[in-house]
Structure formats: C-alpha cells, structure tokens
Automatic annotation (TrEMBL):
<protein>
    <submittedName>
        <fullName>Sirohydrochlorin chelatase</fullName>
    </submittedName>
</protein>
<dbReference type="GO" id="GO:0046872">
    <property type="term" value="F:metal ion binding"/>
</dbReference>
<dbReference type="Pfam" id="PF01903">
    <property type="entry name" value="CbiX"/>
</dbReference>
<dbReference type="GO" id="GO:0016829">
    <property type="term" value="F:lyase activity"/>
</dbReference>
<dbReference type="InterPro" id="IPR002762">
    <property type="entry name" value="CbiX-like"/>
</dbReference>
<keyword id="KW-0456">Lyase</keyword>
<keyword id="KW-0479">Metal-binding</keyword>
Length: 256
C-alpha cells in the first residue's frame, strides 16, 4: 500500500516556524496523511533544502508552498528543489484563494471594527510588478467580501504596485476603516511598514492570518483538492512547474 506525506514549505521569517508547526501539528492529529513535515529556507531553496528533501519519506508527497499566492520562488526555485524528493511530488497551489481564508479576513477585520455600511474594509497585499498572482488573490477575496459582508466598501492596495498602500487613504469613502494584511505570517512589512503607512490615515489595523484554525482548514482543503486531481490524472499549473523546473548541473545544483 502506498504512503502519503504532507510537506509545508516556505521562506523563513522570525514567525514562520511557529506558524508552520502549529498547522502541521493540527493536520498530523487529523491523520490527513501518514506524516507531516515542515521546512524553511532563507533565500536559495535548491542549495539549502536538497539534503533535507532527499530524506522526505512517502510514495506521494504533497508539497504546499506556505504563502498566499505564487511568487518568483514558488514558480521557479521551489519546483526545482522538489526534484530532490524521492517520491512522486504533487506540488500544490498556495492557499490564498480559499473560501476559508475569506473567513479569516472577516474575523481579523471585525476584531478591530465591526462591519457596517459606514465602515470601509481595506485589503493589503504584497503585489508584484510583473506577476498577476497576488492581485488575483486579493481581487478574489474583495469580490467575495463585497457580496457577503456589510462593509460599505472593500478596497485593495499593495506594497509594490498600484494602488499603493500609502495612497489608500485618499480613496476611502468612509471616516472609519480597517485594514487586513493578506500575509500568512508576521514580518517586517506587517509589523512596521504597512501600519506606519496607514496610521496617518486613521485606519485600524488587523493581524496577519498566522495560526488561525481556518488556515489549517485551507491547507487541508488544498491537500484534498490535489489528492482528487492526482487520482483523476488531471494536470495542473503546478504539475507543469515541477515537470519543467530542474536544478542546472552546470551551476553545481543538478543531481549528483
């Protein structure tokens, strides 16, 4: 009988170990697969993780990038690093575009300001100057929140693309507003850069998603989705990434 493993993998910050391990422990207790592992890297996934990844057990390994949307790392370097896993890798989509994440946004926002027609909800994403993934994730939640909550308006802004977070105060139609950073873990941007830029506009500020139980549910849902796709023989965008991205031997990173 084949065995399955879940791997939660992502870039390391001061708070990611706590966040990753909390979700991993919950999923292990649920018995979703035989084993659950976490691993992080600082800047070079292939160089830093290849030895660890060779030791990951399981005939099928579900690798979930622990971020809210695809990044340069997750579409290039992580798929290459996962080639060192001995089992069959089912590379998963980041968890940002999950209904459970919308629930977390609502809870984080209402912890600060109760929803109402006189209150604006601001979603703060990282953004990208060249890739659409973060904008698509933010727009997904904005559409759901506009339809399913009582906030008077839902606005989106970003750190590295327009509309910029430092300008969002000029777009508000209401005197009261709350901003939710669409980030998995606390980092320099969520602790300092974003709140400092919003403070002058009097916008209340919520916490990132962190260890919220509904994020565990989102990870579990992505696992089940990928399990169904694998059993059905479907071929996803993430499958294409792991099929085409490989370490280059001339760079000293290829298979030994």
């Amino acid at each position: 009988m084949s065995s399955e493993t879940l791997l939660l993998i992502g870039r390391e910050t001061a708070h990611t170990p706590e966040v990753f391990e909390t979700h991993a422990d919950r999923l292990a207790r649920r018995g979703v697969v035989e084993e659950v592992f976490t691993t992080t890297y600082e800047s070079e996934p292939v160089r830093e993780l290849r030895s660890q990844l060779r030791e990951i057990p399981g005939d099928r390994v579900y690798a979930i990038p622990m971020c809210v949307a695809h990044t340069f790392d997750t579409v290039r370097d992580l798929p290459a690093a996962l080639s060192f896993v001995s089992g069959s890798v089912q590379y998963c989509e980041p968890i940002g575009r999950m209904p459970a994440v919308t629930d977390v946004i609502v809870e984080r926002a209402t912890e600060q300001v109760r929803a109402g027609s006189e209150v604006s909800l601001v979603l703060v994403g990282f953004g990208s100057s060249s890739k659409p993934y973060h904008r698509q994730m933010v727009e997904y939640h904005a559409a759901r929140l506009e339809e399913g909550t009582e906030y008077g308006e839902v606005l989106a802004c970003y750190l590295v693309q327009d509309p910029a977070v430092e300008c969002i105060g000029y777009e508000l139609s209401n005197d009261r507003a709350v901003a939710v950073p669409l980030f998995l873990s606390r980092c320099e941007a969520t602790k300092h850069r974003i709140p400092e830029q919003l403070e002058s506009d009097g916008i209340a500020y919520a916490e990132p998603f962190g260890t919220h139980p509904r994020i565990t549910d989102a990870i579990h849902a992505e696992l089940e989705k990928q399990r169904a796709l694998a059993d059905d023989g479907s071929f996803s965008f993430e499958d294409r990434l792991t099929a085409t991205r490989r370490p280059v031997a001339t760079d000293g990173e290829g298979p030994e």
